[in-house]
Design goal:
It is a single chain. By secondary structure, this protein is mainly alpha-helical. The chain folds into two domains: about 230 residues, Citrate Synthase, domain 1; about 100 residues, Cytochrome p450-Terp, domain 2, CATH 1.10.230. It contains 16 helices and three strands. Strand 2 and strand 3 form a beta hairpin. Helix 8 packs antiparallel against helix 15. It is globular, with a radius of gyration of 22 Å. It binds acetyl coenzyme *A. Acetyl coenzyme *A (ACO) binds next to helix 15.
Length: about 400
């Protein structure tokens, strides 16, 4: 059981600054990458509404926009897409390392380790060289999907398959994962999911990325620390739990009783609630439309009826507290229909979010000061060393 820190009137003795658990509402940086209006349900990347990007852009174009601040010209986009395509392969050494990972391990742990290992191969740490920055961006965006797909095949006892140069970014990932060339609509919907997950201001993993970046370490360490943070069930890991919850509920008729029981037990409903949004997450609105498009084309999934019933029943129970579906509520249903295994949902989130992490890495380097917050000490007063034979077993041990 994890105890939740409560807001109180604790103040720092020297500065008088109030403790805000989880830094709720505390600005920790200035950023021009993404803006959220949590009351109106608006999300913009570099000023462009998410809805426009989802309808018109591609993941790689959106990544370019996030990282370099402006939409690319056609030459810039072609160069970027070509560079990413050229760097999709990963060294046989990384693949061999992944073969030593336990097949039962979580793919997020495999991704964190393999992302960190890239630092061994490209270790110049020349973070004031624009070419190094461009190359690192390209490598990370190109290689992370390859590593996610490679671990999936390796844990099934197969050799990873090589990227296909004739396939665009998202289609190639689905091909490397499922060993089948995807339907163009499935690839387009997946690409749209990546855009929706690419960035979301100073969430936990992005904050991790910026803290790590502020030490001026290499971008592979920045991404690896962010992957570790994204893995938790209160963050990127929630989309796995949503599907487990939908299965547990089982049918639309059980939704109300499930919610009542969860609320009575003070259990969080997965895929609901967001620190920033007090209305339905705009990404959940777009995702829901994608879910319906997928089911129209590729066949219905009964779990969608369960999800809609939960959303309906939650309106009167959680809505008054400003708790509505977040991005994770519908994303799992899309991924399930695409044939993506459940424990790869969060690695897929990481494939997308690497764009936001890298945008924040660049921004952090542009105006860096190492993060070093303070704390309010609540431990014991200074005390004398106690020889081991005089100690009693403490309750915590
Ligand atoms: N189900 C039920 N009640 C909830 C939920 C939920 N999903 N989320 C928040 N609440 C309630 C809390 O119980 C609390 O109620 P109280 O004031 O009566 O005690 C109140 O709303 C505030 O909740 P906090 O946990 O303090 O809100 P916080 O802003 O810290 O947490 C978070 C946000 C972590 C996303 C939370 O809503 C949650 O745990 N949701 C479920 C997990 C989830 O879906 N995570 C994915 C988030 S999106 C993403 O990371 C991509």
């Amino acid at each position: 059981m994890v105890a939740q820190q409560q807001p109180g009137d604790l103040r720092h003795a020297r500065t008088g600054i109030e403790l805000r658990p989880g830094l709720d509402g505390v600005p920790a940086t200035q950023s021009s990458i993404c803006d959220i209006d949590g009351d109106q349900g608006l999300l913009t990347y570099r000023g462009y509404p998410m809805q426009d990007l989802a309808a018109n852009s591609s993941f790689l174009e959106t990544a370019y926009l996030l990282i370099w601040g402006e939409l690319p010209s056609s030459d810039q986009l072609a160069d970027f897409e070509h560079a990413v395509q050229m760097h999709r392969r990963v060294s046989f050494r990384v693949r061999d390392m992944m073969k030593c990972f336990p097949a039962s391990g979580h793919p997020m742990d495999a991704l964190q380790s393999s992302a960190a290992s890239l630092g061994l191969f490209y270790s110049r740490r020349a973070i004031d060289d624009p070419q190094y920055i461009y190359d690192a961006v390209v490598r990370l965006i190109a290689k992370i999907p390859t590593m996610v797909a490679a671990f999936q095949l390796i844990r099934k006892g197969q050799d990873p398959i090589q990227p296909r140069d004739d396939l665009a970014y998202s289609a190639n990932f689905l091909y490397m994962l499922t060993e089948r060339e995807p339907d163009p609509l499935a690839a387009r919907i997946f690409d749209c999911c990546l855009m929706l997950h690419a960035e979301h201001s100073l969430n936990a993993s992005t904050f991790s990325a910026r803290v790590t970046a502020s030490t001026l370490t290499d971008p592979y360490a920045v991404v690896a620390s962010a992957v570790g943070t994204l893995a938790g069930p209160l963050h990127g890991g929630a989309n796995e739990d949503v599907l487990a919850m939908l299965e547990e509920v089982g049918s639309a008729g059980n939704a109300g009783a499930y919610l009542d029981e969860a609320m009575q037990a003070k259990r969080k409903v997965m895929g609901f609630g967001h620190r920033e949004y007090k209305v339905k997450d705009p990404r959940a609105v777009i995702l829901q439309a994608l879910v319906e498009e997928m089911f129209d084309r590729f066949g219905h999934d009964d779990l969608y009826d369960v999800a809609r019933a939960i959303e309906r029943e939650a309106e009167s129970r959680l809505g008054p507290k400003g708790i509505y579906p977040n991005v994770d509520f519908y994303s799992g249903l899309v991924y399930r229909k695409l044939g993506i295994p459940r424990d790869l949902f969060t690695p897929v989130f990481a494939i997308a979010r690497v764009a936001g992490w890298l945008a924040h890495w660049r921004e952090q380097l542009g105006a860096n000061r190492i993060f070093r917050p303070s704390q309010i000490y609540s431990g014991s007063e200074p005390r004398s060393w106690m020889p081991i034979e005089q100690r009693v077993t403490s309750p915590a041990a």
